[in-house]
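During the second half of the funding period, the structural biology subgroup turned its attention to how the target accommodates small molecules. The most pressing case was zinc ion, which had performed well in the primary screen but for which no bound structure existed. We therefore specified the complex as follows and requested a full 3D prediction, including the ligand pose.
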Amino acid sequence: MSMPNTPIKCTQCDFTGYLVHRPITLIYQLPNGEQLIEGRQFGWCKVCDGIRDIEPNFIKYFDTENRITELSEKVASVGHKLSSALSSIIGMAARDDENELRTLTLGLKIARARNSSPRCLTCGTAGAGAVTALEEYTHICGGHLIPLSRSDDAPRFSYSEETIYLDYEGNRVGQLTPLETFTNLAQKVDIEGVLDKGLVSGILVFTLFDKADLLLMKNEPEIYRKFANMIELRIMHGDFENPFSESISARRAMGLSGELTKEEKSSLADSPRVLFDRTKVPVAKWLRSEIRDSATSDCSQL
Ligand SMILES: [Zn+2]
Ligand SMILES: [Zn+2]
């Protein structure tokens, strides 16, 4: 399919540009294997210094909870199931409801789990002020970029369709297996150590997904082990909120060594790890020793 680009201009200065209508499909991959298909929007990226394809803003899904409830009730009702099985026209409407419900539910899951605002699909930059939807963008001169009508004789362009696979934070990751989506999740979760009398009594792992979205991992020992291994790697490399950081800096301030004592080290290694869902309900609990053998073999492969 060929179509002309849309010319745009600034309302204040002589800046002109084009919106390039390349067909792009964004496929968001959630940890449990579900996928949400979205389209891009146009935005301004400060790093690329120009108009770019950017991610949709998932904030829109926060307003959909009432609609989700309404659709769930509709889809669950007996009459709905009947109509869906009966006439093709009514059946179509029923399927539309189901599709809308599915899209909104997945969109809301991603909105809740995301830390980043829409990313530039060219350079991956995110952040308020760095990447801005075009209609909200203020040009350097203080003007706004507005589309001009396309003239019929404008040159037409053909673009091949592009499909981009993303994780829920909008990073380009290629197509992931369920094992990879959970390893990806393990790289992003918050890890906190709890101190009790100067020693670690537990390591808390916080996800922003619902319990139901994490159950696939619990039921697949290999995925569970890989997930736990990734958490251990992050603890080993200090990629978490280290509970000892205060006492280490206090010791350093006194001119003492910042090394952990043997007791501190073993409390960090041996304390139970607990995984929580979005509502802080514990989903899984394990000890490092339970996965240590597989952890060592996995580490050697890295
Ligand atoms: Zn301008
Ligand atoms: Zn960019």
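Two results from this model are relevant to the next phase. The CA atoms of residues 208 and 278 lie 4 Å apart. Residues 2-57+117-167 form one domain.
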